[in-house]
Amino acid sequence: MxxxxxxxxxxFRWIVGPLLALWAGSHWNPWVGxxxxxxxxxxxxxxxxxxxxxxxxxxxxxxxxTAPLGDLLQAWWREVVVVTKVFHWQQPWAEHREPDFLPxxxxxxxxxxxxxxxxxxxNRGLWNGWMKALRARGTPFIALTQEPAFGSxxxxxxxxxxxxxxxxxxxxxxxxxxxxxxxxxxxxxxxRSQGHPFDRIHRILTLGTPHHGTLLAKLGxxxxxxxxxxxxxxxxxxxxxxxxxxxxxFDCLYGHCDQIVFPAETAVLPGARALHLPARGHLQxxxxxxxxxxxxxxxEETAExxxxxxxxxxx
Length: 315
Hints:
It comes from Roseateles chitinivorans. This is Permease. GO terms for molecular function: hydrolase activity, acting on ester bonds. By secondary structure, this protein is an alpha/beta fold. It folds into two domains: about 1-65, no CATH class; about 105-315, Alpha/Beta hydrolase fold, catalytic domain (Rossmann fold, 3-Layer(aba) Sandwich). The chain has helices at about 1-25, 30-55, 70-95, 105-110, 130-135, 155-170, 180-195, 225, 235-240, 290-300, 305-315, and strands spanning about 115, 140-145, 175-180, 205, 250-255, 275. It has a six-stranded parallel beta sheet with strand order 2-1-3-4-5-6, with helices on both faces. Helix 1 (about 1-25) packs antiparallel against helix 2 (about 30-55). The longest helix has 26 residues, at about 1-25. The N and C termini lie far apart (about 45 Å). Mean pLDDT is about 90; it is low at about 310-315.
């Protein structure tokens, strides 16, 4: 569904919009046409700018300074580039360009796989760059488009479970989950639906996930947006039902220039390993080389290493 909506949006911005501007310029006034053209081309990037500038007035996360203006402007421009790429090409037109990679059992055995979970209003095309690179490495993966796009996060659990089982059965190893934004909550909801079995999951790498909600979700009206509000009963219940050792299975990448998930500390689970990335917007976290490198490092971690880390933190 979200792919179709994004195709319509992309067509309107880049084809219908300029044609309307051309028609208005020729039938009314050239300046009107130019103004409309500027609105379609430059309007969305300029509309994003206040989302970054407001972070100057958000109390910083513990241990972090307030985001410098230069970092915010840098993050804004990077975000403009990746948002244009993702929402006007990868997701609307190339959602299935990179198919899931499940090599024959004799090749996949012993090679830990990855399940990819996208965020709100996105689809599996978000991970095209990751999937291409992992296929070249021979790493098995499954990338989901979570449907319904605007339903309850709990409804994604069966899709996640099917992907986790398929990779586990093919490789013989519990998969790694890599999740952006809402996808991290999908991972937690799936794990809850299974009773938090530790043998089903290797680790979960979240990129800008609103683990404790985000202020921006107060503007959302869809069911999954309401669930991501910081004071939502859904988030509170999710946290109450998790055993204490759950967080030790998480790596949380976050940044204080994230214009979607803020305050910044909401993207970190207490007890998880955390990595702060400066001057990066929300979607840019997916395209950050450190995120991909962290995923590769997690694939090489053994179950024994994870167990030792949990015991150390418990002590």
